[in-house]
Amino acid sequence: MRSYSPFLFLIPAIILIILTGLYPLVHSLYLSLVNIKLGLPYKLRFVGLHNYMKAIMDERFLSDLLLTYKYAAICVLLQLVFGLVISLTITSRIVSEKMRNITLSILIAPLLFPYVAVGQLFRLILSTDFGLVNYILNVLGMQAPDWFGNASTAFLSIVLIDVWQNTSFFVLLLTAAILSIPTDYYEAAAIDGAGPIQTFKFITLPYIYPAIFFAVIFRFLGSLKAWDYVAVTTYGGPGTATELISWYTTFLAFYKYELSYSTAVAWIFNLTMLVLTLLLIRIVWRR
Amino acid sequence: MSGQNKKKAYSSMLSKKLSRRQAISTTAKIGVAAVAGVVVGSIGGWLAGSQLVKPATVTMTQTIERTVTETVTKREEITKTITAPATTVSTAPAKEDPYMTDPEGWFKDLKGVTIRIAEEAGRMADAIEYIKPDFEKMTGAKIEVGHFPADTFQHEMRVEATQRTGAWDAFETWDIGFFAGGGHVIPLDDYIKDDPYLNFDDIKDTIQYFEWKGHYYMLPYNPEVFMVYYRRDILEEHGITRPPRTWDEWLDMIKEVHNPDKKIYGIAFTASRFWHVVDSNFWSFLWSNGGRVINEDWEPAFNDEKGLEALEFMIELAKYGPPGIYTYEYMDVNTAFCQGLVVFANQWTPLAFHAEDPKMSKVVGKGGATLFPVGPHGDKPHSPAGGWGHAIFVTCDKPEKVYKFLSWITSPTNQKRMIAYNGVLPNRASVLKDPEIAKYAVKPFKHEWAPNGSYFECLSNAFKLGYRVVLPEISAIVQEGAAILSEALQGKISAKEALNTWEQKVKEILKEAGYSKATHGPYPYY
After folding, report:
1. Per-position pLDDT tens, chain B of length 526
2. How many C-beta neighbours within 10 Å does residue A35 have?
3. Is B394 helix (H, G, I), strand (E, B) or coil?
4. Could you give the CA distance from residue B114 to residue B110 in angstroms, rounded to a whole number?
5. Of the four, A96, B183, B317, B444, which is 20 to 30 A from B260 by CA?
6. Strand B114-120, strand B170-173: pairing
7. Which long-range CB contacts under 8 A does A45-50 form with residues at least 24 apart?
8. From A169, which residue of chain B is nearest by alpha-carbon distance?
9. Nearest to B220 by CA among B453, B449, B431
């Protein structure tokens, strides 16, 4: 009896995981294999992989899929660059301990705001006719862009929102990683005559590499699932210029009521995310 | 670890003299602190959001109690404290209003009954909270009002309807096609027939928008019309003393007043991918040009000469909009008009009240409204109408009792009280004619649709037109169109190309739904 007792204690957690994680997953798989139209009269029938085949032939889905990966890649790249620069700056000797703490406290704030609130905030700030940014540009006599109204600037605008809100995540992780590097390494490098670039390349970067990898994967998956910014700023427009996959699945499920098709699209998207993540992990593991 | 040791370790960490174990421990702590911060922030944000969404019901209840019993002078003072608009409309129960005295004893069986009603948070939910204490006091029933965020309310109700949870008895919606067409709400014909107080003739103009296949499924609540709003003062400055009757007149007026150097633009309307670009604007232009959305054979009918002219006219008008017009959704149009940025604005009814609210508007007393001017192929003005109504879920176990509350909301007394409180629109012809309420909205020029210069006359005339397109799949049709038209408006694709692409998608939607004249009869709407 004693040998089973640890497993008994695990039962509540296992039940919770099954109910909140596994059941929705299995149910969504079931939904993708039938022909449910949300709320409309229909005759339920098993359609096999029909919805998956339909998705693969759906040009809009494929174009949105590419757009979503492009969006996530640009967001994460910019966040990594900005995050690294900020982290290196605030951990350098020119920044005092007090200043570093103040900076970190300020930088953590965007992470605490709900995504919808941040989207609304930027909708106001970047409003073409009433926004602060365009007001300043006009005062300076510069041409004010139509941020969310033009296809190319609309895409950049939602990238900007994501970067503004989530760069702090990189800063937080990378600062902690940099601070954990033993100073002996830097002292030894200094004695050997290494410059700042060599020190960064051969000491800092290898040491914080796991933190970078974790942050990139975590944020890449997060940006791939971005929905809120689009929902409160562009509705996927103009045209389909900012139609990320998460918004497309919402469009399919709640506006076209194609619940089963929407679920199949979501499954394909999730599978691409899974494959890509495993691939990245494998590449990094080999290093 | 003592305090001194802790300080030493912290200091050591900052000077990068940490062991690997300490470093990992510190990283973990920062991570945990960050997660805790996000959790605390989220809870705080949620609580703050809840406070915003939920109105102060208790305060409202007290206000009603006192309003009824105090003198008129006192009542004005009290109502002003809750920032209601001008308050000279009598809010006391009218003796001639049977809903308030219940001479037939119709409400007697409601004692102890709990009615749960889901509302969109804000103006419409607040108005129900405002009037419900009188109903509870009179009948002994309990009314529970759910406040749902506007962005997701209709989605939640669709899921609620599909899952048949029975969590709510009734709810408000505009989407009769989905809810009635999908069989999620009950027809109200029998209840309407047996209703001793409703006076059907008084609401027939507004309830017609909630008819599907010969049955009424909703009682109107805050019915609205999509109209053309204008700045009376600016038009007068240019010697114009009546609103446009035709598209040509309208465009001439817009060109006349459009002055970007002075930050005065001709017109604002939804020209983004927000769905109002189709179901409010394009429909209006199409109908006012004599076109139809779907023909009698259940086929898309908008891709003809009339539809093309309508879309091309929209594209032309957008050129006289503010620089940001291609991002405009519902609230942006209101803001542009109320901030004095534009002379014309195509918008639903709430703008008539926003424009007269000094807290929101710089153009108080300067606005007017009219129906959509007539296009080259049209014969009379048209404007989409309908707005919101209350429906009862099929899962409701006491529909006849819930109906009584929904019917009570439509009482003339309540209609007047709600428009005085926060601008929820009357649904009765008798109340729309009441001169007392005219002061709450913009004041149009006197014209054929508003002979006395009353916005509500114009509204009442618009309701009579009856133009609407009802279909369970209408949301899909509108959303597909919004993405395509937003590109056409910006000149990325031609108007003809846009209509061709959209028509093809609508054909697929209608074909998949299996509609045909042979099986469903001729399509009865527009």
Report:
1. 444 544 444 444 444 444 445 544 544 454 555 455 544 444 444 443 333 333 333 333 333 333 333 333 333 333 333 333 333 344 444 558 999 999 999 999 999 999 999 999 998 999 999 999 999 999 999 999 999 998 789 889 988 898 888 999 999 999 998 999 889 999 999 999 999 999 999 999 999 999 998 999 999 999 999 999 999 999 999 999 999 999 999 999 999 999 999 999 999 999 999 989 998 999 999 999 999 999 999 999 999 999 999 999 999 999 999 999 999 999 999 999 999 999 999 999 999 999 999 999 999 999 999 999 999 999 888 888 888 999 999 999 999 999 999 999 999 999 999 999 988 999 999 999 888 888 889 999 998 888 888 899 888 888 888 788 888 888 899 999 999 999 999 999 999 999 999 999 999 999 988 888 888 888 888 8
2. 17
3. coil
4. 8
5. B444
6. parallel
7. A47/A260
8. B34
9. B431
Rounded Cα–Cα distance for residues B283 and B277 (Å):
9
Q: Which of B18, B159, B487 sits opposite A238 (nearest CB)?
A: B487
Q: Which residues of A touch B324 (CB under 8 A)?
A: 127-130, 146, 149
| Residue to substitute from A35, A40, A44, interface B, most B β-carbons within 10 A | A40
Of A100, A146, A211, the CB nearest to B327: A146
Instruction: Round to whole Å and give the CA distance between B29 and B217.
Output: 58
Residues of B in contact with A211 (CB under 8 A): 27
Strand partners, B270: none
The two three-digit tokens of residue B118, written as one number: 């889901």
Q: Which two tokens stand for residue A235?
A: 């509705």
Measured CA to CA, the distance from residue B167 to residue B162 in angstroms comes to: 12
Rounded Cα distance between B88 and B437, Å, is 9
Please identify which residue in the block is written with the tokens 């350098």. Answer: A92
CB contact under 8 Å between A149 and B45, yes or no, is no
> What size, in residues, is chain B?
526
φ/ψ (deg, to 5) at B250: -60, -50
Interface confidence, given as ipTM, is 0.79
Q: Between A39, A181, A251, which is nearest B178 by CB? A: A39
Strands (E), B30-139: 114-120
Q: Could you tell me how far CA B413 lies from the centroid of its own chain?
A: 22
The answer to whether B286 and B293 have CB atoms below 8 angstroms apart is: yes
Distance between alpha carbon B22 and the CA centroid of its chain, in Å?
A: 58
Burial class (CB in 10 A: 0-12, 13-18, 19+), B21: exposed
SS3 B494: coil
Calculate the CA A145 to chain-centre distance.
26
Residue B363 and residue B340 in contact, taking contact as beta carbons nearer than 8 Å: yes
Q: Say whether A151 and B329 touch across the interface (CB within 8 A).
A: no
* Alpha carbons B159 and B178: distance in angstroms, whole number: 11
CB–CB of B272/A237 below 8 Å?
yes
First CA to last CA across chain B, in angstroms? 78
Q: What is the rounded distance in angstroms from the CA atom of residue A130 to the CA atom of residue B337? A: 12
Determine the residue of chain B that is closest to A243 in CA distance. Answer: B483
As a whole number of angstroms, the distance between CA B369 and CA B454 comes to 9
User: Is there a contact between B210 and B389 (Cβ–Cβ < 8 Å)?
Assistant: yes
CA dihedral of A115, A118, A120, A123, whole degrees rounded to 10: -120
Distance from CA of B322 to the nearest CA of A (A): 7
- Tokens for B418? 């709600």
Cα dihedral A271, A273, A279, A280 in deg (nearest 10): -170
Residue B117 bridge partners (DSSP)? B145, B170
Q: How far apart are CA B334 and CA B423, in angstroms?
A: 15
What's the rounded Cα separation, in Å, for the pair B168 and B164? Answer: 10
Contact B347, B224 (CB under 8 A): no
